[in-house]
Design goal:
45 residues, 1 helix
């Protein structure tokens, strides 16, 4: 039973870490896109 609980905990931790990493990557991509758009607008005008 303890092994099962440990495995479940490890899987949950891995899933949480993966979700956090995905969210961070998405945020970084959005920030880069916004910066690029702002630069294009500034250079355009």
């Amino acid at each position: 039973m303890l092994l099962v609980v440990l495995v479940v905990l490890v899987v949950l931790v891995v899933l949480v870490v993966l979700v956090v990493l995905v969210v961070l990557v998405v945020l970084v991509v959005l920030v880069v896109l916004v910066v690029l758009v702002v630069l294009v607008v500034l250079v355009g005008f």
